[in-house]
């Protein structure tokens, strides 16, 4: 969180809902979470909706807000996020509640304590699954957080009870076999059913992460209350989509399509967000960078036909659809992505009204979130006022006038974000780093690896993410004062994507971006054991680096890789360039020399 927002959030947190003032929004179109009503006035008092169709005079001392030409919505609810950073951003974009599918237990418990004390005015409310339920080496274990895992056939009840004791609001289960060259261990059907039954025994919902049709059906047949995602696919028949929808309807399940992250996987960017000046004014470079960087290296829009088809089938079958973004992943951003998700739901066949239901009353009801998600007497006064009519043009949700949480305006947080971004944009662009005349960044000084700028060269392994791979770096003189770096790597199981190698950090501090736009490519010489290796590159805001493979042989050879091959990497904010072995376990040895950043 940025310092200005942190101070304002603290100030907001100090005023509990018991001291919230009285606000009257006059003559406004009201979407109450289910339907729209013209020319209404809504009275808010002490953090609650006092009257959703107020007809009297403005109470003495109340703040009166003009609603003409505007629409008042319940605070938006993102039904699928991973809460770990940018805690103030959701409120900036009108998202007052987030349903978290996996975060650190300490983060979850901090937010719960602040919510219970009424002291989180500067952040969205969060209802979290805490630690997800996955197999050893399963999806969820690839992040730099050590988590407990459940063996197939293990004690599901004890595992679920431990999550509930930590504070989990519901249980998130993983059925994921992986994709492409990346494979995960997965819980089998019997264990998934045992976990779902264990959750239900304690009165908790169980939602399941799936990534293909087979696992979607298996999760529903096992009794899942909801699917945390839909899935992309090269082929899917209408009958398969309709059959899945009928199954979900019969089981009384809900579905969170998460188009925002599925589009990221398909290499499709949220253009309407990236090109909207109002959105741009609220995202700093790092936040915007995450939104620009997707998982798919190249666009494959055809694979999005499957989730669109399934979403339309679910709508026809009357299955509750919830708006969720999977924010926290590449190609998404907290708060902002929910507005894209609403547009994606409309594109998939929902009416704008149905999309708004999916982001308000539907998730509140599905996840048992209490009296929120509607504009009705006695409900939580989480509100969003927008210009225009999103029931006709869903893009109007982006034209935010004001947001209230527990009856208090969050304008200070939004204004602080606007100032922060404006100040950042006002700073004259820095000149690209002046590269050495020969472009070489691998040097030898006093017998040790060195570099002409940046933090320098370091061993790089999966240990920071809980892995157990190891590496030894050796260096000796190469031509003209450069270094030849010998990399002896032991890649070991223990992390979903194990690796070991060497990394160059070009920033003045670790993981601080450096402007390398004076270069167009990385060039180096290599020799090794005949196996394939990768060059990886990341820039500010990226959670997963981009990688390009290269071959090795017994003789030295030169390799040149254009920066453009690292799709999504911003050359003006590079945080890391790595040379890695993996992910297959084994012993590796290769050498690199004369690593250069060059423009041709």
From TrEMBL:
It holds the Pfam family CIA30. Residues 163-408 form the Amidohydrolase-related domain. Keywords: Signal. Residues 1-20 form the signal peptide. It comes from the Bacteria. Residues 457-567 form the NADH:ubiquinone oxidoreductase intermediate-associated protein domain. Transmembrane segments: none annotated. SUPFAM superfamilies: Composite domain of metallo-dependent hydrolases, Galactose-binding domain-like, Metallo-dependent hydrolases. This is CIA30 family protein. It comes from Massilia aerilata.
